[in-house]
Structure formats: C-alpha cells, structure tokens
Amino acid sequence: MSTKNQTSPNQTSPHRDAKPHRDAKGRPVVAVTGLGIVTSLGQGKEANWEALTAGRSGIHKIERFATEGLRTTIGGTVDFLFDGPFTAPQLSEKLATLAAEEAVGQSGLGQPGDFPGELFMAVPPVEMEWPQKQELAAAIDGDVDYDGLLRAAASQKFTAMHELFLFGAVADHIADAFGTKGSPISLSTACSSGATAIQMGVEAIRRGDTQAALCIGTDGSIHAEALIRFSLLSALSTQNDPPEGAAKPFSKNRDGFVMGEGAGALVLEDYDHALARGATILGIVAGCGERGDGFHRTRSSPDGKPAILAMRDALDDAGLKPDDVDYINAHGTSTPENDKMEAMSCAAVFGERMATLPISSNKSMLGHTLTAAGAVEAVISFMTIANGRIPPTINYTNPDPAIVLDVVPNTARDAKVRTVISNSFGFGGQNTSLVLTAEPARA
Fold it and tell me: Which residues are marked as active site?
C-alpha cells in the first residue's frame, strides 16, 4: 500500500468551481486524506498491513512488568517505544504522536505544527498508578487520608505528577505539537471511544464548524492493575500458552479478550476542500450510528437492540442499505457473550446474508486496544478497501455451532470491498458503528 504524499496545501484543482458535493441528506461529504497506525504488530500502515494479511499475531508474554500470580500474563503490548519505566498517559501520548505524524504527513494538510483543523481524541481513563501512589504515600509519611493528600497538594511538590494524570493532558500535548485549532476534545466512551472520536469529527465538518479534523484513538494502558481489574470482571482470556492463540473471536472455546495497545489516526476533510487542494482521497466516512445501552455496566443487552440500532442508524446516515455492505469489521472481542450478541445483531440487520457476508476481527491478532480500537479498526478498514484484501480472523479452529458466520478464517481473502461497516461496542453501553466507503454515494 502506497503511503506517499501526493498533495500540496496550496495546490489548486479544476474541481474548485464545481458544484459542491453533498451526501444523500444534503450535507458536506466527509473525506479521509490521511491514515496512521501503531500497534503491537509495528509502526505504520505498511508494517501493520503486512502482518495483518499474513495472519501474524502481536500478542505475547508480558515482559514489561512482573506477572507472577496473575491469571492473565499476555497482551498486545507495544514495547519498542520506551526503554525505561513509563506511565499509561506517557505511552498513550507517544502512540498518538506517531499515528498522527503518519496521518498528517500523508494528508499533506497544513504545515508542521500548524494543522488547520480541530482535534478529537479518544484517550483512556487515567488515574495515578501504583508507583506514583507509593511515592506519594512515602512522601506524606504514610498518612494517606484525605487531609494528608490536601497537605501534599498544598506543598506543590507534586505538580508534575498531578499534570501527568490529568485526563485532558494527552490531548493538550498533541494539540500543541500539531497546532490544531480550537479547544482539543478529549473523550472516553469505553471500547467505542475511537469510533466516537471519528463521529465527532464527521459531525463538526458536516455542521461547517471546520473544514478538517484530526481524529485519534490511543491506548497504552496495559499495566498490572488494569489486568487485575479486567480479570475481576472475568473479561480476560486465561489461555496464556501459547500467547498468540489466546484471542479466538467467534470460536467455541473463546474465553475472553486479550488487552492490546495502539493508536489510530485519521485526517478528515470536507470533500470539496480536499479536492480543491489536489489531495488524494483515501475514502469516505459515509455514516455514523450511536446508541446507548443502560442494561449493565459491562454486559451487553441480551436482545442486542442497541447494537442493531447503531448499525441501522449508521446505514441510514450514509443513505445506504444492508445489501450495499461488502464486509463487516467486527468488534469481535473473543468474549463469550459479546461475540454471540454481535453475531445475533448482525443477523438482525443483514438477515440471511450473514451466512456469506465476510466478517472478521482484527482483535484476533492485535488484542483489544480498548479506547483506541474504533480508530485502529477504521484505519484497517480503509486499508482493506484500498487493497482489496480482507484480514482474517485467526485461531479459528473450533467453530461455534451457535454462531454461523463467514469469519474469513485464518487466511486473508482477496475481495472487492467498496463499503465496510465497522463496529465498536463498549462497556457501559456505548455502541457505535461507522460506514466507510471508497467513494461518495450518489445523492
């Protein structure tokens, strides 16, 4: 896949005076002109695409910290960016920076440090981690109560620690580095966060608030405490050996997801703005659907209604029908309940086509990149469209007879893909679906 920048911010085009492009609902068409990605498979689109289509896993035994005594000792950690100790916000920022550099560079939009658009950024929930808690406790002589914390804060000895764990700090740093306009938006809607960031960028362009948006999902939050918390929810796979075989979406012997790290970045533009500067159009974000589900803090609604409505809303937003979809990039976490719910929901939307409509899960190779997943998988979906090749669902050797799907098992498949629906269903009831296309639908 070529990542060469073929654009110039000041380049004119014969399209400048053409009739404005509008979607089926009369709104500006939202184009994608830049893509960037970092995962446990490597840095950049080419490295990730080669590994994904080869069916290679980035999941491995965790070496970054001690895992003795933990039920889960594996993850899709990104270990090639730091040599020493670091926190989740620091790694999340580094991942976001690398993905954004690739996306903005490919788009050719603006100048370095002067991006002419807004920033919408999905970042993981942050809180003080164990080493910092221990440092703070030692500094206040073990008097770790509310009054002790207030005295520590008043001493102003911990300003750097405080700023490190501010929720909006990562987006602020990215905004400063790339020179985005307006106030950066930080958001967290659990596992749908990356898709929600894209949706917010789409909506801003459609409203005319901005002609461009930098949308990022990032997550570098694998640490011991996170593994323990997800284990207490019985959400993680405990099939630690071999690590690369643990994530097995839609298989009968699936037992939970594997945590992953990574970042995905997309440059979105008003289609006519992109044409006028001679940009290469990589695809279109044609539709977005989002539904809330208050059924349970972690479990999906058993009837799948919110997921069904999110997909239907996304298709309606795009002005398309279920028959127009060529491929589904599944949420596909490898948890028993989520995979069953997603299969049932897709069947409700696509009917009998689900027996033959390709649906595969990148998480079988990347692990679940949590906050970043929606953006990472959107980038992969656009690469699927560009290359005409569908990444597989690996580790599919024990099919679940209750889930009859074409999961593109184990081996990538060549196919003409023009329209993808990408699903992101999060803890806490956030369900987001994106419809991604090769070109604008005819109004």
Answer: 191, 331, 368
